[in-house]
Design goal:
18 strands, 6-stranded antiparallel beta sheet, alpha+beta
Length: 382
């Protein structure tokens, strides 16, 4: 998967030739807009356009695309340097500044190992040509590096023209993340959406699905407070006596009242969130029964499918692949994960785990789904 390759690439860059600089731009934050249609980068100070630059964004092949969205320039303060060289691509560049955690960069046109501009790559400036980074002329890259401060807003959009209201270009502000960009969004933000408590995986994943749907102003605690928590029936309630405790009693028996919840509760909460945020006419959550092969076919065939919450045994090494199931249909070791609506280049599922905050490629959607009768919550665009 190209996104994973890019992460490895940037790490290798830092270890094999990145030259950081102590020089930092002035602290006054700016706004940067990149139009992938126009292949232009626009820089604004106090809503006034101060520079327009020809650029080259990623080749739009589903693997090298520059991800559209709203980001922060060098949010960590550590992704800025004067030179790098990638032995993977046999190309380097000067004056690089990172975004999305440094996985993607602004930098000069491509250079060889001796820091000479590669003519055939420089000739591509003005059309999509990169592996996902944003290339600028050497002069523009140097200006960007010296002028645009860390923490500045970055908006990468399909189409933007100078004079357009800057507010119009915030294409993820309250809007669903395009499904082809979900892996990038989760790579950048997933760890901020990890479950807060030992047993709050469903609440954390509801919050994550809401964020992918354009609802980013809710907390996990707010979701937990909204979920019905009376009783012991996971078909109606979030069943949890102690959210930060385990599922086994001191004598080794299973504490069934420290469990979680099932699809109807998740569907109801998502539908309420969609309704309260004026998205019911655009999005829906429904319960389905989908085997891995059926889920795979849905990913491949549906334009409206936006991912699925699946119920799995979270740690088969701890609970076994055939753990106990009680009379209410509760499965020991129950956990939920989010299956993205796209696959990787090898045809694997891409699965986000709220326990780790990470995406992993997998040949299956999760362990022991059959014990949950393959129950699945599908999120769809209308």
């Amino acid at each position: 998967m190209k996104k994973i390759v890019l992460i490895s690439l940037i790490l290798s860059v830092f270890l094999t030739g990145a030259v950081p600089s102590a020089a930092q731009p002035a602290a006054e934050k700016m706004t940067v807009v990149v139009s992938t249609d126009a292949q232009r980068t626009y820089v604004y100070r106090n809503n006034t356009l101060i520079r327009t630059m020809i650029c080259s964004t990623g080749i739009p092949d589903g693997d090298n695309d520059t991800p559209q969205g709203d980001y922060i320039i060098n949010s960590s303060g550590t992704k800025r340097g004067e030179w790098f060289f990638s032995r993977t691509y046999k190309e380097g560049a000067e004056y690089w500044v990172g975004f999305i955690g440094g996985v993607y960069l602004f930098h000069s046109v491509a250079m060889d190992e001796q820091r000479n501009i590669i003519p055939e790559e420089a000739a591509k400036l003005g059309r999509a040509a990169s592996h996902g980074c944003i290339r600028l002329s050497l002069e523009d890259a140097h200006w960007f590096y010296r002028t645009v401060p860390d923490g500045s807003d970055l908006h990468i959009v399909k189409n933007f023209t100078p004079g357009q209201n800057l507010g119009d270009c915030k294409n993820y502000k309250g809007l669903p993340v395009p499904k082809n960009d979900m892996s990038v969004w989760l790579s950048a933000n997933g760890r901020d959406y990890k479950q807060k408590y030992l047993l709050s995986c469903e609440a954390a994943l509801i919050r994550t699905v809401a964020a992918l749907s354009g609802i980013t102003d809710i907390t996990e605690d707010a979701v937990l407070a909204d979920l019905p928590q009376d009783g012991t029936d996971p078909e109606k309630y979030f069943v949890c006596d102690d959210i930060d405790s385990g599922r086994k009693n001191k004598d080794g028996s299973i504490h069934w009242n420290n469990y979680g919840t099932h699809p109807p509760v998740v569907v109801n909460e998502l539908e309420q969130l969609f309704a309260r945020n004026d998205k019911s006419d655009k999005l829906s959550a429904t319960e389905e029964k989908l085997t891995d092969s059926q889920l795979s076919a849905l990913i491949s065939s549906s334009e409206t499918f936006r991912g699925a919450v699946v119920w799995v045994v979270g740690h088969p090494d701890r609970w076994g692949t055939n753990p106990p199931v009680n009379e209410r249909g509760m499965v020991a070791g129950e956990h939920v994960r989010f299956v993205l609506p796209v696959k990787d280049a090898s045809g694997n599922f891409l699965v986000y785990d709220p326990e780790t905050g990470k995406i992993s490629p997998s040949k299956t959607a999760g362990a022991s789904r059959n014990l949950f009768n393959y129950r699945t919550v599908c999120i769809s665009a209308k």
